TrEMBL record:
A single MF term (Gene Ontology): S-adenosylmethionine:tRNA ribosyltransferase-isomerase activity
Claim: Transferase is one of the keywords in the record: yes
Name the UniProt record assigns to this protein: Unannotated protein
GO process annotations (BP): tRNA queuosine(34) biosynthetic process
UniProt-listed HAMAP family: QueA (MF_00113)
InterPro entries: QueA (IPR003699), QueA_dom1 (IPR042118), QueA_dom2 (IPR042119), QueA_sf (IPR036100)
Keywords: Cytoplasm, Queuosine biosynthesis, S-adenosyl-L-methionine, Transferase
NCBIfam families for the chain: PRK00147.1, queA
Length: 344
């Protein structure tokens, strides 16, 4: 396996800069397998999803919420520093792992300042065995309340336009604020679409995977299997696992919902930290179908898609590019079926 096996050309103008309105108006490329060697797909919209599911199916969503964890700070010299909070290290959430720019130039113990609020942040150097750093927020109150005042919702670096509202980078069913990025396949759902699915006998289950560093980490080694996955917190309730066992089919909304379910089974633990790396040859236990956005080349997310439907992903991505689909976090979606027929 080579990293080049998971590469493709993504023109910049295909990277969505604004979300579809309404949410479920985004396009949906439906994977129908292959017949006589040719790819079979249908071009629909997300609000058509109920046409492809049936009573007895289970739709699983990741209900994590993005924290306003991007902090724009200053050094005593006046130089700008940007901090992106990833994971709290203490019960009081004062120490965090974080991405820091320019982290390599800061001194351990250096105090950074938020100009408007006067809040101080101490830089504690590089985290052990990690590409991230450790920072400490000098604040004794509710940290989330502080972040809501001084932080920003962190958008991926390839999105250069401001969103009309920060709510558009949250799912309508988000619950616990914890993640550094949104589970973006879920951004397409509206309350009305969820109600339509429920009315048709499709159960909806919630899991949690706190989206962290790997979302921002491209694979940088020639053999993708040498890539080191960072751990992320996940939680799946016993009730959800019972629903999975009883469901006719399990449809995961996004790669993070996939990792939650498959981690709970592979690790035989309903919650904890997972570094599960899903790639070709993976023994699927829970997920039958996956609704997901189109991913960056050379990423672990694309390796997961390859593990799910094989090299058919190449034809699907080529068709999507030819057909004008919008890619990445704010783009369109696809509905993948690992049981779809691969005809001769």
């Amino acid at each position: 396996m080579k990293l080049s096996d998971f590469d493709y050309e993504l023109p910049l103008d295909r990277i969505a800069q604004i979300p579809s309105e309404p949410r479920d108006a985004a396009r949906l490329l439906v994977d129908c397998g292959r017949s006589a060697g040719s790819l079979r797909v249908e071009h629909r919209q997300v609000h058509d999803l109920p046409d492809y599911l049936r009573a007895g199916d289970l739709l699983v969503v990741n209900d994590t919420k993005v924290i306003p964890g991007r902090l724009r700070l200053q050094r005593s010299s006046g130089g700008a520093v940007e901090v992106l909070l990833l994971d709290p290290l203490t019960p009081t959430s004062t120490r965090w792992t974080a991405l820091v720019r320019p982290g390599g130039r800061l001194r351990e113990g250096e105090v950074l300042h938020h100009a408007q609020s006067g809040t101080e942040v101490i830089f504690h150097g590089r985290a052990e065995e990690s590409d991230s750093f450790i920072v400490e927020l000098c604040f004794t109150g509710d940290i989330l309340e502080l972040l809501n005042k001084i932080g920003e919702i962190p958008l991926p670096p390839y999105i250069t336009s401001a969103l009309p509202s920060s709510d558009r980078y949250q799912t309508v069913y988000s619950r616990r604020p914890a993640s550094a990025a949104a589970p973006t396949a879920g951004l397409h759902f509206t309350a009305r679409l969820l109600q339509t699915l429920s009315d048709r006998g499709i159960e909806i289950a919630h899991v949690e995977l706190v989206v962290g560093l790997d979302t921002f980490q491209p694979i940088q080694v020639e053999d993708p299997l040498d890539h080191k996955m960072h751990t992320e917190f996940y939680s799946v309730s016993e009730h959800v696992m019972e629903q999975v066992d009883k469901a006719q089919r399990v449809i995961a909304v996004g790669t993070t919902a996939v990792r939650s379910l498959e981690s709970a089974i592979a690790r035989d633990e309903l919650s904890g930290r997972t570094n599960l790396f899903i790639h070709r040859g993976f023994d699927w236990q829970a997920v039958d179908m996956m609704m997901t956005n189109f991913h960056l080349p050379r990423t672990t997310l694309l390796l997961m898609i390859d593990a799910f439907i094989g090299d058919r992903w190449r034809d699907i991505y080529a068709t999507a590019l030819e057909s004008g689909y919008r890619f990445l976090s704010l783009g369109d979606a696809m509905l993948l079926d690992r049981h779809a027929t691969e005809g001769p």
